[in-house]
């Protein structure tokens, strides 16, 4: 998978960015240089990893509370 | 800026200024929400748990306004502004030192900072990211990620439990279910596209 494709995938599945922000980044994708793509891609990869970890914690906390 | 945040949290001054504009039934609901939020903020244990939860929700991008009436959402630039304001308030408090009211005020800004463990220079430094993407990429995302590392499940749980107590059994459970649904959606989307997402993450690892 090349970097631009990977960036598109991570954008599509980002829970942090709004749809408006996603569209704006996609529209500018061909104007970004390698360093810029790396910056945004690295953040989105980290964001996905952390938001999943956090979602799992929230899911467990919610389950425990609702079962009480 | 300070007024804007206080307005979002307590709605106190806004409610007083707009009494004539709000229909009676809406005003009752509005003030009830405000009273519950004030009860939350007046209890030191609740306050710690509540703001831990609030920071988590803000940092994962969940729209808090949909979950907790009376809060409003805190966009990136507001979060950065809070951090700067907090530092300014701290310095001001240090200068005035013995003033108890000022100390309390400083504590408020410490609590509401969405990324309290992130130094100010990171918050401001991350603004550079906006130049990369023409202001569409949220600079606050960088510091949010830093804050998210090692987040505390115990504080999230305590915050949710207190929310249920304060908002009452029915409304509290409904709010917690909504928060849980956001988390479920995130996990389900990942499971349905796991291979593709993992490959994309690997590219930037």
Molecular structure report:
The complex is a heterodimer of chains A (68) and B (205). In chain A, 79% of the residues lie in helices and 0% in strands. The longest helix of chain A has 34 residues. The termini of chain A are far apart. Chain B has 13 helices and no strands. The N terminus of chain B is likely disordered. Chains A and B meet through helix 1, helix 2 and helix 3 of A and helix 9, helix 10, helix 11, helix 12 and helix 13 of B.
Largest sheet of chain B: none
Separation of the first and last Cα atoms of chain B: 38 Å
What is the ordering of alpha helices and beta strands of chain B? Answer: HHHHHHHHHHHHH
Please state the CA-atom Rg of chain A, rounded to the nearest Å: 15 Å
For this structure, the quaternary state is: heterodimer
| SS-derived structural category of chain B | mainly alpha
Write down the secondary-structure element order of chain A.
HHH
Low-confidence stretches of chain B: 1-20, 26-33, 60-82, 91-98, 104-151
**Helix count, DSSP H or I runs of 4 or more residues of chain A:** 3
Largest protein-protein interface: A-B, 48 and 47 residues
Structure in a nutshell:
With 68 residues, chain A is mostly helical.
Write the layout of secondary structure elements.
The complex is a heterodimer of chains A (68) and B (205).
Chain A (H helix, E strand, L loop, with lengths): L2 H10 L6 H10 L5 H34 L1
Helix pairs in contact in A: 1-3
Chain B lengths: L1 H9 L1 H6 L6 H19 L1 H16 L4 H4 L8 H21 L3 H13 L7 H6 L2 H6 L6 H9 L4 H15 L1 H24 L1 H10 L2
Features:
heterodimer, A: 68 residues, mainly alpha, B: 205 residues, 0% strand
């Amino acid at each position: 998978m090349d970097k631009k494709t990977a960036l598109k995938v991570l954008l599509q599945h980002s829970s942090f960015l709004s749809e408006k922000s996603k569209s704006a980044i996609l529209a500018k994708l061909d104007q970004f240089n390698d360093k810029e793509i790396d910056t945004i891609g690295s953040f989105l990869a980290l964001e996905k990893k952390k938001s999943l970890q956090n979602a799992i914690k929230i899911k467990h906390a919610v389950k425990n509370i609702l079962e009480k | 800026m300070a007024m804007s945040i206080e307005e979002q949290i307590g709605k106190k001054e806004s409610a007083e200024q707009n009494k004539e504009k709000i229909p009676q039934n809406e005003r009752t609901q509005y003030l009830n929400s405000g009273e519950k939020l004030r009860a939350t903020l007046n209890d030191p244990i609740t306050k710690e748990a509540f703001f831990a939860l609030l920071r988590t929700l803000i940092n994962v991008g969940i729209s808090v306004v949909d979950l907790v009436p009376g809060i409003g959402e805190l966009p990136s630039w507001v979060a950065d502004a809070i951090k700067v304001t907090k530092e300014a308030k701290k310095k001001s408090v240090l200068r005035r030192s013995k003033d108890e009211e000022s100390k309390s005020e400083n504590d408020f800004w410490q609590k509401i900072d969405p990324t309290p463990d992130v130094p100010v220079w990171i918050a401001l430094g991350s603004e550079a990211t906006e130049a990369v993407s023409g202001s569409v990429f949220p600079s606050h995302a960088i510091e949010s990620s830093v804050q998210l590392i090692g987040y505390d499940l115990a504080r999230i749980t305590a915050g949710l439990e207190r929310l249920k107590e304060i908002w009452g059994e029915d409304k509290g459970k409904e709010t917690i279910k909504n928060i849980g649904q956001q988390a479920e959606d995130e996990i389900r989307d990942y499971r349905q596209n796991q291979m593709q997402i993992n490959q994309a993450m690997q590219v930037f690892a």
